[in-house]
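From the pipeline queue, job 12 of 40. The input is one protein chain; the requested action is below.

Action: predict structure.
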Amino acid sequence: MIVAVGSAAGLRPADGRGRDGGGVVPRPVLFGRLGGPARVTVVSAPAGSGKTVLLRSWIAEAGLAGRAAWVAAGRGERDPQRFWASVAGALRLTPAGAGLVQGVSAAPDLDAWALVERLLADLARLEDRLWLVVDDVHELGPEVSRQLELLVMRAPAELRFVLAARHDVRLGLHRLRLEGELAEVRADDLRFSLEEAGQLLAAAGVELPGASLAALHGRTEGWAAGLRLAALALAGHPDPERLAAEFSGTDRTVADYLLAEVLDRQPEPVRRLLLRTSILERVNGDLARLLTGDEGGERVLQDLEAAGAFVMPADAGRSWFRYHQMFAGLLQLELRRTAPGEVAGLHQAAAGWFAGHGYPTEAVRHAQAARDWRLAARLLVDHWPGLHLDGQGAAIHELLAGFPAALLPADAELAVLAAADELAQGSLEAADQYLALAARRSDRVPEARRGQLRLLAGVVSLLLESQRGNLPGVAEQAQRLAATAGDGDAAQPGLTEDLRALALISLGSTEYWVDAPDDAARHLESGIALARRTGRPYLEFTGLAYRAALAVRKSFTRGAELGREAAELAERHGWSDDPAFGVACRVVAVMLTWQARLEEAERWLQGAERTVRAEAQPAMSAATRFVRGVLEMAQNRDSAALAAFQAADLLARRLASRHFLIPLIRAFLLLALVRLGQTGQAGQFLDGLGDTDRERGEIRVAEAALRLATGDPRAATLTLAPVLDGSAPVVWYYELIHAYALEAIARDSLGDAGAAHSALERALDLAEPDGPLLLFLLDPVPGLLDRQTRHLTAHPSLLAEIRAMLAGPGRHGGTAGGYGGGRGHGGESPSRVSRAGPSGIIPPRLPEPLLEPLSESEVRVLRYLPTNLTAPEIARELSVSPNTVKTHVKNLYTKFGAHHRAETVERARALGLLAPSRTGRATR
């Protein structure tokens, strides 16, 4: 038998005010439910949930003192006569019931059923609204409960019932629920919010800082009695913050309350189950049987949960349960007091069960709680590869911290795991040291486990070389890992393919950094496919992030699509602190920055900056600083941009291998100097570069900008020639757009209008698919753009967008009239971007991707949709038939999942396929 938990004895107010000495916390939502249209309201919640306080404060707040009859059932109420005499007496104390309800005198032969019938007859003439509040309904015996059910079902409409109990009671109320005449207030409704907890403490004269209040609220889980007991303890205490930090179920007042009202009221088998399973964060029937030796544990747990005994379901199927935090603290204290010698054995038994059922982290924690370090180490080492491949780095870090500090360097296997943890925390040097310690102590490892040690060391060495950006080292470690994984002594069941996926993705990500794009794409695609096949979403997410970074170099749209997919996968699994999440965010920020969608770009870039640690990931940090510099430049904050590019350059110099971003970083550093008017310093910086750097396409583009700024357009054309003919290629395709834009400016300065028109048209050709409008804003050529519209151009819509953005408020570019004249900004302009809060904000998700890719013809038609041109006019612009245009428009509606032109434009802009509108509206 399960005994229902007791009431908040000693906490019950007599006049709507708690014993904390302060006024009650106003709860208008619950007050509204109590006084709502339902004929019956049930308040069902465990002990100390605040049921009685709520009811009395509602009566006081609503002014119902003269219209509410209050009856409290005594503990184990089995005397029907006494109960119904109390009901009649309470009703007679109200003005509405005084003239209707007859008094009841106790008599040996008095029939309780007859009393109920008499009450119904007396109340039949009730005209004014009257509430009957019955507290502790669960204490009523079976016969009294049936009599109460009769009264509830047959009472006149003006008589309303409020029934308070510590667990659900069987009164046939389901019929009222179906008829919409039943309102319910449950434990979750009564739980105090953080704001309400603060109000309760403030009413008692207790003020806590936000963090302390949140921690106290979290431990009490909003339990009213716990918060009131805390208020009593904290009021007048000299150090309330410290006491709040220590307040738990082991506090004397809380422990006494829970012992008296909950634990001591349970039968011995139930009490034993509660105590012995209190060592668990969650418990099921099988674990309860293991730790108690008794069958039927699941049923007992279900009954405890139904009885409100501070037991809550931990899963939807109600097979796993957990104890309220404060109740768990009391149980653990009582277990240590009554059976201290059993605690370690219970933890060891739990460790074995969790290990055998696929819960390695819980298994290790229980082995550590038992102080069985050998068992804990073996469990963690054996399960580390799977935990790492599932992205459980934070859990691994916590488990390693649970070992004595001296044990990690002394145990070769744990030393390897410590190396991986140091690597994840950002210390490459410490990781190296731990790997060296593991190698020196490997002879102490039993022969049967040395193969696994080699496997673990191989994985960590691979990760270390990958983080350093050392491609030869990664390739060597990948080959070794493949050989070790196939070794029968080292192999772990089911991990061979997973480790191969890890090696492929590590290899591909390193090849990305050192500018081997073809090899990187091949290895990343293979690794992603293998990760999906083996069911390793963490590896898939990591591979997708780097695949996105690779793709964005050729297509902003495709790169951002993959970046968004990786970011959403990370958010779904809780990996938004992982460096690869930063890679994905940075890719999306790149697209948004170059499309001049600066507010969106800022939020995504903050997501990238939050995950990157310069010491641990110099390549990632350099890339992120580079994007920050471009974003600052886009907002005319050229001094801040220069500082970001200089920081990126310093980080890039620390890399083990030649990094593809180095020329790009230095090119933009040079551009920032030019935009600031520091052409002399820019020339010195250029002269300081080696011949190899000077010949890179990106550096040539920046040098052309410098030549234009110093009034030498002829030198600019000569510098750009190898870029435009392909003999000095660029890594990022937008740099080629930049080159053609500068070529147009140079040719125009030289008086060659035809060549200027051709160069600008070629820049627009390249910009059309992805819309990197920022290039035209950084190097504005309004005169050329105006003339371009008077010539035949294939890009009137794109051209109109660029001109509209140039004409927008606060929009000004590099120097007056392009680079002619050499005048820089000289100062910072106010940012058009509203920063979205502290670094650490999770970027918003982009819209769903297209149902299928667009064809080139559909892309051309899409560019005209934001204009006011009709289908025949678009057809004339594109030299196609109107029917062809209509067919393409229909296909666009289908692929975007849209119903009209404006919706198509809106979704295309959201996906970055069209530049943003100045007005925020699309043409319908």
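Job complete. The CA atoms of residues 84 and 115 lie 7 Å apart.
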